[in-house]
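As a warm-up, study this chain.
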Amino acid sequence: MRLKDSLLDILYPEVNCPSCSSEGPLDAHTALCKKCHRELPFYAEARTLGEYKSLSVLWYEGLAAQLIKRMKYAGQAYLARLFAVLLQYACEQADFRADYVTYVPMYPAKMKERGFDQVELICRQLEALGYRKLAALTKIKDTPPQASLDLAARESNVKGSFMASGAAGKSFLLIDDVITTGSTITECAGTLKRAGAKSVCLASVARAR
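Now compare it with the structure written out below.
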């Protein structure tokens, strides 16, 4: 059995495209069928966000936006595996290294209402791929949705909303599903740094234009 086949068997035992459910052949890196792979709006460019190295795999549009919404709002949690594979490959190519992977958490009451935290599920799948996962952040303040706010209001909205624990002396790869202005993920990164983290780099499945 080829390595490609064994990896796909582990990650996608149904051997169907996780986007459209069609049968293979599947791409070696995304495990999507050729049609869906071509439709993904790849970005995968390392850049600086504030003081932090940052990487987003996709633009938040088209099929990428559809898949993220299906995971978050239609309960299709199995898509976490696809997003983890995309993040792993992009982070390896960009040489993003850290002691632990952690994530931007939801407010507990909102997570209970949804039934899961989609970014935590992605981190679980990254853990299955060999990363060490640490839930180093907790959201301690319920905040209005960022989408309705301008940049200044977004920064103010999330300030002081997170608490870090167990971060001292560790380096982190901090994951989110979508970066828009970067206000939330940089607030989380700053919270980790103030708690003693050695370094933080940022990665998201998608980025808004």
